């Protein structure tokens, strides 16, 4: 999977789910091929799609789009 595919997949899912999702929820529901997200890609998502991971649910960060 290329970064652009990863970015678009995450963005589209988070647009549909404004309350956000944990990485595990995203990974499992989207059948992503990664056990954990690449830190470089996460940093790029923060810039490219305004990914926000400031909230937590238990020990897991909630992935949301900042501007949605």
Give a summary of the structure in a few sentences.
This protein has 68 residues and is α+β, with helices and mostly antiparallel strands. The chain is built from 3 helices and 4 strands; from the N terminus they run H-E-H-H-E-E-E.
**Overall pLDDT, averaged?**
93
User: CATH topology, which one?
Assistant: Nucleotidyltransferase, domain 5
Count of helices?
Answer: 3
The CATH architecture can be named as 2-Layer Sandwich
| Helix proportion | 40-55%
Number of strands: 4
Between the first and last Cα atoms, what is the distance in angstroms?
A: 25 Å
How would you summarize the topology of this molecule?
Layout: H1 3-16, E1 21-22, H2 23-30, H3 39-48, E2 51-52, E3 56-57, E4 60-65
Antiparallel strand pairs: 1-4, 2-4, 3-4
Name its key features.
alpha+beta; 3 helices; globular
Characterization of this structure:
This protein is an alpha+beta fold and 68 residues long. The chain has a single domain (3-65), classed as 2-Layer Sandwich (Nucleotidyltransferase, domain 5). 47% of the residues lie in helices and 18% in strands. Strand 3 (56-57) and strand 4 (60-65) form a beta hairpin. The N and C termini lie far apart (25 Å).
